[in-house]
Amino acid sequence: xxxxxxxxxxxxxxIYFGGKEHHVRTRCGSLxxxxxxxRHKPALITYPDLALNHVSCFQGLFFCPEAGSLLLHNFCIxxxxxxxxxxxxxxxxxxxxxxxxxxxxxxxxxxxNFFGLGAVMCMGVTAGAYILTLFAMKYKKRVIGLxxxxxxxxxxxxxxxxxxxxxxxxxxFYGMCGLLKELxxxxxxxxxxxxxxxxxxxxxxxxxxxxxDERHGSNVMQFLQAINGRPDLTSGLKRLRxxxxxxxxxxxxxxxEALHMTSKLDRRFSALVEVSSRVVNYLLxxxxxxxVGCLLVQVQACGSMVTEEQPHAMLIPMExxxxxxxxxxxxxxxxxxxxPLSPSCxxxxxxxxxxxxxxxxxxxxxxxxxx
Length: 371
Prior knowledge:
Blueprint: E1 15-16, E2 19-26, E3 29-36, E4 43-47, H1 54-63, H2 65-74, E5 76-80, H3 101-114, E6 120-125, H4 127-138, E7 143-149, H5 158-174, H6 178-188, H7 191-194, H8 203-213, H9 217-228, H10 234-237, E8 243-249, H11 255-264, E9 269-270, H12 280-290, E10 294-299, H13 306-309, H14 315-323, E11 358-359, E12 366-367
Helix pairs in contact: 3-4, 5-9, 12-14
């Protein structure tokens, strides 16, 4: 484990709800990492979407009591922020050399080495999911599993490329202006929570808007330019050998991207199924036991950021996913976090995928055992 003297000293503003911030110096500059939990536990690495950080992208998931218990009871969490996206970040100098997606993936390796971590579980949202997928391809032995939320994996379509160019121009000339924030909110959330002339926007959208106010345009533009210049990862997906759990909101602009990604993963390591509410838990447990590599969970009435909009929909699939690795440790002590599937902890309606917003979509199933 790296010597704590290698990190930049902390002040009171560097402590977040029990987590501690470390600034890890990498070949491409300093990177903020917020660490929560017991560092002797298995590591879970997170990476957020464009213009977000661990608070604005993962707060809903970790503040959901059952999800927080599940994750913090079984893992030490390492929240990595893209360069210049951490809380209180200073503006990146416009003359600073631009980073590409390979640079961002390589930074993750340097973070793992700094903390003395071996193979880790990874969780990323949209652009962050792309960075972690690329990292898993480049450093296969350092990733044991991927949890991807509304992921990207192909090069930008002409539509996305143009959309990103418009945002880049807005950032360059106007910074984090009102129009840019509206475009980002449409990227993250469904219309149901964004509101309209008759229905006010939800609290999570209002909170995200306040977080976006704190971002520096130059910092967001650097990450956006890296993502807009990303290469296609399709050919590398067949070589992924870690299990993958994919969540996507059915209102996400990247919904078709997630479906297509799953179809390109090695079928020997994947299975997508459609189930009724009566058999969802039974089937998920069987997929866990036989070691299925990929499961896609479509969340109804939800945008890209399932972690904020419907975090409860992630509970049951995540628990069974972790059980497949032997990483899930149920707690039997009354004063400790409880399993989200414990009868005394979960409400009956959460056991129905329809009530939780779950819709598991089918493709041809091909399953094999592997180690």
